[in-house]
Amino acid sequence: MFKRLWLLFAQVVTTGLAVWFIVTALKPEWTDGSASQTKPLTSTVTVQEAASGAGTAKPSYREAVGRAMPSVVNIFTTKEVRLPQNPLLDDPLFKNLFGDRLNERGGTNKQTSLGSGVIVSAEGYIVTNNHVVETADQIEVALESGEKATAKLVGTDPETDLAVIKVDLPKLHPITLGRIEDVKVGDVVLAIGNPFGLQHTVTMGIVSALGRSHLGVNIYENFIQTDAAINQGNSGGALVDAQGNLLGINSVIFSSRSGGGSLGIGFAIPVSMVKTIMEALINKGKVVRGWLGVEVRDVTPEIASKLNLNRKDGVIIGAIVKNGPADKAGLKPGDILLSVDDKPIRSMKEMFALIASLQPGQKAGVSILRNGHETLFSVTAGERPPAGKRGR
């Protein structure tokens, strides 16, 4: 009896070992306990990544571009340039030989240039740079849809390098104006324009700095600096935020002397200034600014030391326009201009903005420092003359 039980036990063990061996060889995952524990964990992580977007989500600004792109136009300008007169026209011998055929070699030549613009109203008003259109005999714009139209010049403001043109087209898409007050250094921005004739090109960067001035390109400067690629043909185009709202008009680049391409530093005129200038140009055809008729310089530490000044704010008057508002009020070269209507002046930039904001005929209290004493003068602002007379 015992022997029979032992044989039965041995057969069961042998059969079990045989089954285990076959299963291990053919289905190893059935016997691998670590694999069965790891697989559900892997599945869980994958689901979590998919839910959060980690590893699969791709940041895109297609919605911002979709909102702003229809508002950006490409601008093509044409100008007729008179060719220099052929010197042989004054030679009697050549006149006898060739007669009137020499005159046929004179005449004019057409020059074309590229730029960009931004539609700011459904009535067809477009903002661009003054240097894009100022000398053009003919202005043509091309919409994103490919539709083209001839534009007429509404007004220009060389001192901010802004201009407004107008087209008569239906169903235009004016851009949404953003708020420069909400912009911070590091914000993502997109530049949209017509670089090198590559129509409706989009580049991306960040706001590198705000309030840039003293570049020496415009009289009134308050630029947004960006590293978004801006090249020739981008002038007048849009700088927009990540939602497609207009933050500025692309205007200036730092470029290499040899190639003329972008070096990663571009400047845009902020939307706050754009709004003020475009409204003046649309409503009046020009920008009216206050004027005192003075030439000024910042008070540097060197100037302060040389003049034994205890303060380094204000601007020093270097020259005064004869019979201008400042001259009539009694201001003199060498005076330190401290404030206008109780608003302190710490730099030329602040002074330009304060005086420009005055209306012609408006009286303003001007505080100056003369011979170590502060004195208050009443000045009646004039209207700033056209570009060329640089007295403020």
Give a written overview of the molecule:
With 392 residues, this protein is an alpha+beta fold. The protein has 3 domains: 73-166, Beta Barrel (Thrombin, subunit H); 180-284, Thrombin, subunit H; 290-383, Pdz3 Domain. The protein contains 10 helices and 20 strands. The chain has helices at residues 2-26, 28-31, 33-52, 62-68, 92-98, 130-133, 271-284, 301-306, 325-329, 348-356, and strands at residues 72-82, 108-119, 125-129, 138-142, 148-157, 162-166, 188-193, 201-212, 223-226, 238-240, 246-255, 262-270, 290-291, 294-298, 315-320, 336-340, 343-344, 363-370, 373-380, 382-383. The strands form 4 sheets. The protein has a 6-stranded antiparallel barrel with strand order 1-2-3-6-5-4. It has a 6-stranded antiparallel barrel with strand order 7-8-9-12-11-10. The termini are far apart. 34% of the residues are buried.
Using brief descriptors, characterize the structure shown.
392 residues, alpha+beta, Thrombin, subunit H, Pdz3 Domain, six-stranded antiparallel β-barrel, 10 helices, 20 strands
